[in-house]
């Protein structure tokens, strides 16, 4: 029998697939006791919720990267699948572990599983230690003067700013003590996280490197080349002024505190406005979790119940055309095709395609939220739901419903030369910049010259934006 002080500690990795700035791991390593790193693939109906197909691709590669990093420091990653309670019980009995460490998660199913587990394990005499690390600040920490959760972003941001710097990141452990013997592990290939027939993720690896090393490289490159013009450049999808850290943050390959601290002391080449604006975006992520934590139904129910009576009249066929990027509005189509090809979409374009689905096609925002959840590599239960409700006008501190994006003027403003459209809608690549966002207004000669045959090589608009706008406003005004 292992003496208690030498009993292993199970470190349960969840949305924290990193060694650096990982308090659950660091404290286990410091104890000098054997450490058993574990990842549990929880059933879809529990844990962190149904895993979208694009994020499943990411998870597969991220777990391989984590396993390799753990090997480098003399350890291992044990993979198991099933309900966390049953998996942990069997691991504890196999290994005589007497402690479990994890970093807290804040999605409602995760919170309820962890609360029940903590109680059950503690009752059975185990030590359970949970740590922060997924957010800049715990969602319970910031409260309004009246003691209630925030519902409006700006005061939330002010409170977050006033609460001081997030804790300094802790370094990755350089070695871990192994248990006397390793418990059995699943083979990751058996989890079938990768798409096969067809392999629609074939091009993901051209633009993404899942794992902690990829996250740190992405951060370094953003600090070097992107943040300098962040405030202005972040709205232009053809530029590379945004960090593209969201999928890494989503599975915790890097901590938001680590990202925040990397923006300190950048010197005169980067203005304070650029840094603050970037931190404000990181704070939107915290705000989204704050909302989800205090309103667990964020992904399924209108925050503002007034929208429950909204008449969604858009058809399945229109939804299908939107998912395929065949709406006849180039900026919308470019975004939807970027999503399919690389599992991502620029933030400005996310707002445009979301507005188009909800307000031009009159399709319930929840349909869009589901599609994004399945196709985004950064799919996040808080940011996705909060952002869709923000665009729909039904969310906390949302854009008003009547702010309906015009897909033509948005394209002209934020993709003035049409470079983004040309990249993802190649059949329009030869079109003059004057018409690239409205091919349906181009003279026949310009279309001929560019080899565009509307209704054949590229679709005619599936709705007339001006008429659709009026219909949306009428539907909105008919709400009580
Ligand atoms: P940067 O501009 O470099 O921002 C840095 C980080 O701040 C991001 O990585 C992200 O973690 C956070 N952030 C930035 N903007 C937002 C925002 N509006 N809300 C919350 N966090 C933000 N983001 C997701 O991470 N997952 C999602 O599932 C998701 N779904 C969205 C759905 C819609 C309809 C919209 C309009 C936005 C959605 N966003 C989502 C927010 C935002 O579009 C992405 O976080 C951003 O595009 C990621 O690119 P980046 O890493 O280059 O961002």
UniProtKB/TrEMBL annotation:
The protein, known as: DNA photolyase family protein
UniProt family annotation: Belongs to the DNA photolyase family.
Keywords: Chromophore, FAD, Flavoprotein
InterPro entries membership: Crypto/Photolyase_FAD-like_sf, Crypto/Photolyase_N_sf, Cryptochr/Photolyase_FAD-bd, Cryptochrome/DNA_photolyase_1, DNA_photolyase_1_CS_C, DNA_photolyase_N, Rossmann-like_a/b/a_fold
Domain of life from the UniProt record: Bacteria
Domain annotation Photolyase/cryptochrome alpha/beta: ranges: 7-136
Record's keyword annotation contains Flavoprotein: yes
Organism: Ciceribacter sichuanensis
Cofactor requirement: (6R)-5,10-methylene-5,6,7,8-tetrahydrofolate; FAD
């Amino acid at each position: 029998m292992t003496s208690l002080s030498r009993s292993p500690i199970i470190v349960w990795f969840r949305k924290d697939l990193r060694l650096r700035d990982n308090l659950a791991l660091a404290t286990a390593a410091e104890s000098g006791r054997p450490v058993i790193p574990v990842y549990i693939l929880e059933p879809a109906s529990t844990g962190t919720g149904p895993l979208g197909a694009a994020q499943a691709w990411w998870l597969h590669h991220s777990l391989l990267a984590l396993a390799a990093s753990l090997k480098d420091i003399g350890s291992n990653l044990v993979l198991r699948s099933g309900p966390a309670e049953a998996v942990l019980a069997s691991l504890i009995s196999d290994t005589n572990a007497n402690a479990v460490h994890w970093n807290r998660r804040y999605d409602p199913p995760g919170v309820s599983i962890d609360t029940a587990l903590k109680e059950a394990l503690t009752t059975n005499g185990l030590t359970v230690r949970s740590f922060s690390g997924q957010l800049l600040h715990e969602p319970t920490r910031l409260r309004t003067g009246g003691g209630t959760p925030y519902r409006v972003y700006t005061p939330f941001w002010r409170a977050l700013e006033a609460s001081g710097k997030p804790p300094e990141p802790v370094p990755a452990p350089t070695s871990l003590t192994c248990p006397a013997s390793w418990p059995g592990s699943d083979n990751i290939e058996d989890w079938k996280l990768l798409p096969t027939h067809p392999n629609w993720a074939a091009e993901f690896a051209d633009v993404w490197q899942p794992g902690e090393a990829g996250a740190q490289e992405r951060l370094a490159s953003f600090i070097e080349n992107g943040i300098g013009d962040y405030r202005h450049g972040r709205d232009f999808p053809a530029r590379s002024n945004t960090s593209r850290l969201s999928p890494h943050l989503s599975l915790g390959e890097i901590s938001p505190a680590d990202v925040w601290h990397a923006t300190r002391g950048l010197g005169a080449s980067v203005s304070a406005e650029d840094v603050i604006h970037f931190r404000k975006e990181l704070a939107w992520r915290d705000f989204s979790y704050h909302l989800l934590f205090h309103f667990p139904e964020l992904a399924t129910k209108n925050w503002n119940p007034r929208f429950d009576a909204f008449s969604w009249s858009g058809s399945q066929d229109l939804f299908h055309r939107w998912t395929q990027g065949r709406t006849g509005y180039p900026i919308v189509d470019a975004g939807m095709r970027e999503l399919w090809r690389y599992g991502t979409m620029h933030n400005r374009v996310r707002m445009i395609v979301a507005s188009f689905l909800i307000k031009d096609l009159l399709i319930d925002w929840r349909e869009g939220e589901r599609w994004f959840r399945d196709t985004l590599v950064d799919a996040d239960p808080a940011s996705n739901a909060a952002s869709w409700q923000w665009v729909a006008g039904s969310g906390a501190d949302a854009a008003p419903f009547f702010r309906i994006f015009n897909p033509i003027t948005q394209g002209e403003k934020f993709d003035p030369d049409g470079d983004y459209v040309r990249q993802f809608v190649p059949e329009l690549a030869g079109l003059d910049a004057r018409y690239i966002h409205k091919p349906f207004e181009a003279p026949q000669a310009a279309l001929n010259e560019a080899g565009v045959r509307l209704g054949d090589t590229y679709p005619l608009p599936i709705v007339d934006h001006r008429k659709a706008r009026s219909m949306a406003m009428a539907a909105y005004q008919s709400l009580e």
